[in-house]
Amino acid sequence: MTQRLEVVGIDKHYATPHGVSRVLRGLTLHADRGEFVSIVGPSGCGKSTLFNIITGLVEPTAGSIRVNGIDVTGTTSEHIGYVLQKDLLFPWRTVLENVILGLEVRGTSKKEARERARQLFAAYKLEGYEDNYPADLSGGMRQRAALMRTMVTDPDIILMDEAYKALDYPLKIALEGELLETARATGKTVVAVTHDIEEAVTMSDRVYILKAHPGEIIDELDVDLGTTSTDINERRLAPRFNEFYEKIWRGIEQRADVA
Predict the structure, then answer these.
(1) Residue 84 forms part of a structural domain
(2) Do 228 and 127 lie in a common domain?
(3) For the chain, what is the total number of helices (H) and then of strands (E)?
(4) Is residue 16 domain-shared with residue 100, that is, in the same domain?
(5) Number of domains in the chain
(6) Which ranges constitute the DSSP H helices of the chain?
(7) Is 118 exposed, middle or buried (0-12, 13-18, 19+ CB in 10 A)?
(8) In the chain, what is the greatest distance between 2 CA atoms, to the nearest angstrom?
(9) pLDDT in tens, 67-114
(10) DSSP class of residue 158?
(11) Looking at the structure, do residues 253 and 194 belong to the same domain, yes or no?
(12) Within 10 A of 184 (CB to CB), how many other CB atoms are there?
């Protein structure tokens, strides 16, 4: 069966004055329709580099990226949306103008783009801030605007790089639950990199554990918490939550000890 997203044998090397720096080695992973996949590992394991390769921002030294069976290595794909840890909002554009940027790039009329974007402001707790500028917002509010900028384009594959890190806990829980429910209901594929093991276990169908120097996968865990609920608090109280938390923690800790 063709996977929606396939990362096949990705290597990434950089030439330095002191020789070759190997960032990623032989990375192979996949994510299918409706799946939530997390990638966890220590700092320096190349998670952000991997995302930049998936989105076509960085060329791999070897390997390929496939979307729906088609090789998209080194190119951008309209099927992929990317939510960064930093919001990267343009300070000269209003919040609404920032949110519709991706739609404008795709050629959507400004009227349609604004209509689609305005539907999201209440859900992301930014109603009434449409005409404000990024400087008027708190860090958490800016990150919510960045999330909206990706979600309004309705991508099939959503890449999330520590995207909820700046949010307050109640909103983080609410948006996590909404994203999980959306993935289940619409078949969207979500791939997240995170340092938060609790978040990875709560959200994921599958978790890949990476080691650093160079970054490579050391384990792949299929997560079955024993519940189909998308309520985040219920999932964290699920019978097998602690079991998977400990497996991931031990995998990361053992590699850190070896290093």
Answers:
(1) no
(2) no
(3) 9, 10
(4) no
(5) 2
(6) 47-54, 95-99, 101-105, 110-118, 139-151, 169-186, 197-203, 232-236, 241-258
(7) middle
(8) 56
(9) 999 999 998 888 898 888 778 899 999 999 999 998 988 888 999 999
(10) E
(11) yes
(12) 15
The whole-angstrom distance between residue 2's C-alpha and the CA centroid of its chain comes to 21
Q: Do 254 and 162 belong together in one domain?
A: yes
The answer to whether 157 touches 4, Cβ cutoff 8 Å, is yes
Judge if the upstream peptide bond of residue 239 is cis by omega within 30 degrees of 0: no
- For the record, the structure tokens of 224 come out as 């079955």
Domain residues for the domain of 109 are 89-154
For residue 200, how many other CB atoms are within 10 A of its CB?
26
Closest CA to 66 of 84, 79, 57: 79
Task: Kindly give the pairing relationship between strand 157-161 and strand 189-194.
Answer: parallel
CB 80 within 8 A of CB 67: yes
Q: Are residues 173 and 247 in the same domain?
A: yes
- 64: domain CATH number is 3.40.50.300
State pLDDT tens for residues 177-230: 888 888 888 888 999 998 889 999 999 999 999 988 888 999 999 999 999 898
The answer on 129 and 24 residing in a single domain is no
Q: Does residue 60 sit in the same domain as residue 183?
A: yes
Check the CA dihedral 137-183-38-71 and report its sign: negative
